[in-house]
Amino acid sequence: MFVGTYTPKLDDKGRLFLPAKFRDELEEGLMVTRGQERCLTVYSLSHFELMAQRLQEASLTNKGTRDYVRMISSGAFQESPDKQGRITIAPLLRQYASLQKDVVVIGSLNHVEIWDPTSWETYLTEQEPKFADLSEEIFPGI
């Protein structure tokens, strides 16, 4: 499970140190791809394969399915962390998420997200007022 917020930096070659707490689950390999809200999404290979299998079972006559598959697969890059726990973020993905040197890496239970710090702060500011209301919608009675 991926949780927490971390603020590593990209080096000049576009490499990112994965948070130490995430490395064990991702050491066998991972996929980095476009995420919603202009962030990047990192999946373990096993989780990405399950997701890809489910997408292949979805109806391609549905335009939304085709669009989603195209966005996910065309921006997907398979990576393996090096001995220091670094992965390379492809230029296409750095551009998509407006990543420079500073980044925010968050755990989102079954995946990891990589954000531009300004985009992340904007997202948090927009979502904070809705957060209390979401708990009742998602977990009624809690």
What is the chains' assembly state? single chain
Please give the alpha-carbon distance between the first and last residues. 22 Å
Helix content: 40-55%
Structural class: alpha+beta
What is the alpha-carbon Rg in Å?
Answer: 16 Å
Strand content: 15-25%
Uncertain spans, ≥5 residues at pLDDT below 50? none
Order of helices and strands: EEHEEHHEEHEEH
Helix segment count?
5
Largest sheet: 6 strands, antiparallel
User: What is the spatial order of strands in the main beta sheet?
Assistant: 1-7-8-4-3-5
Shape: globular
Number of strands: 8
Mean pLDDT, nearest integer? 94
In a nutshell, what does this entry contain?
The protein has helices at residues 20-26, 45-57, 63-74, 91-96, 117-138, and strands spanning 5-6, 15-17, 30-34, 40-44, 77-79, 86-88, 104-107, 112-115. The protein is α+β, with helices and mostly antiparallel strands and 142 residues long.
Q: Can you describe this structure?
A:
With 142 residues, the protein is of the alpha+beta class. 42% of the residues lie in helices and 20% in strands. It contains 5 helices and 8 strands; from the N terminus they run ββαββααββαββα. It has helices at residues 20-26, 45-57, 63-74, 91-96, 117-138, and strands spanning 5-6, 15-17, 30-34, 40-44, 77-79, 86-88, 104-107, 112-115. The strands form 2 sheets. A 6-stranded antiparallel β-sheet has the order 1-7-8-4-3-5. Strand 3 and strand 4 (40-44) form a beta hairpin. The chain is globular, with a radius of gyration of 16 Å. It starts with a strand and ends with a helix. The model has no long low-confidence stretch (mean pLDDT 94).
